[in-house]
Amino acid sequence: MSAFTDEIARRRTFAIISHPDAGKTTITEKLLLFGGAIQMAGAVKAKRDGKAATSDFLEVEQARGISVSSAVMSFEYRDCAVNLLDTPGHADFSEDTYRVLTAVDSALMVLDNAKGVEARTQSLMDVCRLRDTPVVTFSNKLDREGLDPFELMDNVEESLGIQCVPLTWPIGMGKRFEGIYDLVNKRVVFYEPAAKGRRNEVVTLTDLNSKDLDGWVGTLLANKLREDVELLGALDPFNPELFMTGQQTPVFFGSAVNNFGVRELLDQFIDIAPPPQARATTTRTVQPDEEGFTGFVFKIQANLDPKHHDRMAFVRITSGKYERKMKMQHVRKGKEMAVNNATTFLARDRVVAEEAYPGDIIGLHNHGGLKIGDTLTTGEDLKFTGIPAFAPELFRRVRLLDPLKSKALVKGLEQLSEEGAAQFFRPLEGSDYILGALGVLQFDVIASRLENEYKVRAAFESVPLQAARWVTGPGAELEKLKTEQKRRLYTDVADNLAYIAQSEWAVNYAAEQYPKLSFHKTMEI
Ligand code: G4P
């Protein structure tokens, strides 16, 4: 293998998907600790609490002490270069969260052991399914009482339609949590009792019938483990092909806050998770080891420095090597651009990239013309597919507070919408502009940016709208819809037709009424 293909093979680019409070922040912190990227536990958390706000650039972010925009964290672990893309999850949930998943090669699903699959996990998994992304599962909080591990796996299989294959198995839980059994390496990893001094100690135990096990964890749990492992023997084994097509998920158990089971997870994750994968374009599939550079923009972050209205476009490299000062073709605009100052992301610091490889994320400063979904190449005319917009779930009517500024308002809303900060819809009938988003904080971000960057003051008012779909189909049917349902129809910035109604039920009903039309929850950008 050449040095180039070696670099590709050692990359792992992934994101964590979870429902708020399942433990994503805690586990991120532990992963970074293992990667030597942060020295002190609590650093990631502190960032969220607004104490060390290195990525909290926007005013609203600072005011709320949380990080609105997801970041990229890169670290070395064993011989791998790991790129962990953050998926904002609490109030900072937005389209970015979903779109990050278009830029990864695998995902780590973190579940609260007591709760199993929750609403947000479900919707993030729906997005993973758009590209059959391989998913590894970590069941967290085993130090608390939760679902029996078999029940948890049933819950995952039923809610997500994905087969579970445990690679570690818990020994007890809650107050009686004694550790995990590593089913691959046949090792017991002790959690407690700390009093016996075995915490995190790893003991190889090829024969589960060994009396040693009874001595360590008590006969009750030792027998339970033996029974469980026998039952597990009847399950299908781990199948890399089924994993790679998103049909099977390896499952790990542990307690992130106690940093327990996380190293086992990371070690096996590194082995199992795929290196950078081939990507589809409208004309051909691009292989990562092709010489020509290609990449696509999956996120735009504004106001990294509030003093300058700057922006950073986050580019996922899909093939070729990035080198400083190289020239790239901005395919949509048919323009060449010299890139002198791309940034890479080493956990805490942004550093100017000398070189970067497929799987890596680079940040391009102030290339105002770049939009989400844009393709960059070393000359070839390509357009990557699979970078969708997602139907918003929250809506506000835009009210201009200074009537003389209506042009600036439209310009601002259009540009911010193109950046992916929220979605701007114009009605076919009437003059009420509607702003759609997935996270409520997006409205604050838009209001603050309209005021700071476009000098427009606008208020966002509640509207009785809750669900949107893009509509496509034969012209005559679309005309019929436009005649009969005009007041529910809007166009987005790219002039796509959207149906927006007061409830999920109403959009589903409309879809039934117009069977020749397609109602889409996602739309290719
Ligand atoms: P999130 O990013 O997915 O929203 O979750 P986060 O890591 O912030 O964790 C949510 C809460 O769950 C935190 O408690 C965290 O300490 C706790 N937690 C994470 N992993 C475990 C675990 O393995 N066991 C137990 N028992 N708790 C865990 P909090 O009270 O909200 O915050 P804090 O006061 O602990 O900082």
Task: Describe this structure as you would to a colleague.
This protein has three domains: 16-70 and 104-272, P-loop containing nucleotide triphosphate hydrolases (Rossmann fold), CATH 3.40.50.300; 279-377, Rossmann fold (3-Layer(aba) Sandwich); 391-524, 2-Layer Sandwich (Alpha-Beta Plaits). Helices cover 28% and strands 29% of the residues. The chain is globular and about 80 Å long. Helix 8 (211-217) crosses helix 9 and helix 12 (406-419) packs across helix 13 (441-454). The chain is an alpha+beta fold. The protein is built from 15 helices and 33 strands. Bound molecules: guanosine-5',3'-tetraphosphate. Guanosine-5',3'-tetraphosphate binds next to helix 2.
List the helices and strands and how they pair.
Blueprint: H1 3-9, E1 11-18, H2 24-34, H3 43-48, H4 59-64, E2 72-77, E3 80-85, H5 95-100, E4 106-112, H6 119-130, E5 135-140, H7 149-160, E6 163-166, E7 168-171, E8 179-182, E9 187-190, E10 202-204, H8 211-217, H9 219-232, H10 240-244, E11 248-253, H11 262-272, E12 279-280, E13 285-286, E14 294-302, E15 311-319, E16 322-323, E17 327-330, E18 335-338, E19 343-346, E20 349-352, E21 355-356, E22 361-365, E23 375-377, E24 388-390, E25 394-400, H12 406-419, E26 423-427, E27 434-437, H13 441-454, E28 458-462, E29 467-472, H14 475-484, E30 489-491, E31 497-501, H15 504-513, E32 518-520, E33 522-524
Helix pairs in contact: 8-9, 12-13
The site of guanosine-5',3'-tetraphosphate has 18 residues, from α2.
